[in-house]
Amino acid sequence: MFFVSNWTSPEYWLAVLYRVPAILFALSAHECAHAWAAYKAGDPTARNLGRITLDPTKHLDLFGTICLLLFGFGWAKPVPINSRNFKHGRKDNVWVSLSGILTNLLLSFVFSLVLYISVLGGATNAIYINILIPFIYINIALAVFNLIPIPPLDGFQFISGLFFRKAARAVNVLNRYGFIILVILMITGVIGTILGYVSGFLVNAYDGLFSLFAPDARGLLPYVLAFG
Question: How distant is the alpha carbon of residue 5 from its chain centre?
């Protein structure tokens, strides 16, 4: 994953530059998915604010974007949602909460396939490869990071939507101290460890699926992502 290793290294800042297109696209797709899902569920709030768009200027949060650039995980401006407009209450709330995560996972799969086919087809341009790789990891990072059940992340909205009545006290505590807990998990490296483990698992899973169609190329995707 992308963590600060040597701030004085030109290679480090070049890697940061390579991540910019992926960050702009992944964050915008994530929030656009939330806005679209909410609109389909009956809430026009985000649509009326122009959030059903891939325009990054509508979605970016400065601090969250910087974190994603430097550390490999971050966030965008939350999409405003009025759940009272939903047609099916908690069911729609769960769907809207998961929509951004599912979108990032789908994009990570699609870009993994593009990279896999590109390398098999003989693509050797280092700039192209190094720009494409972050599209995989950034989308995985956003999906996994937002699955963490701590506010204000999507995982918390998902869990609270399912179990609010049974765990109202725990939900209230997390609402009060969630951001502090999140910062502690970042500083201690817990989130980085989780992201690294899940990223490796997904990349190997994608590679295993692709290798069903190209058995001789098994292991290609993890190799390119590790040394690309």
Answer: 22
Q: What is the pTM of this model?
A: 0.87
CA distance 152 to 169: 17
H helices of the chain, in order, are 10-40, 45-48, 62-71, 90-120, 126-147, 154-163, 168-187, 190-210, 220-227
Residues sharing a CB contact under 8 Å with residue 20, sequence separation 6 or more, in sequence order: 69
224 contacts: CB under 8 Å, gap ≥ 6: 115, 119, 129, 133
31 is catalytic: yes
Neighbours of 213 (CB within 10 A): 9
Q: What percent of the chain has pLDDT above 90?
A: 50
Which pLDDT does position 178 carry in this prediction? 81
Q: Which of 2, 31, 74, 202 is catalytic?
A: 31
List pLDDT tens digits, range 74-105: 778 889 999 899 998 888 988 999 999 999 99
Do residues 43 and 85 touch, judged by C-beta distance below 8 A? yes
CA distance 75 to 34: 13
Peptide bond into 152 cis (omega under 30): yes
What's the pLDDT at 66? 83
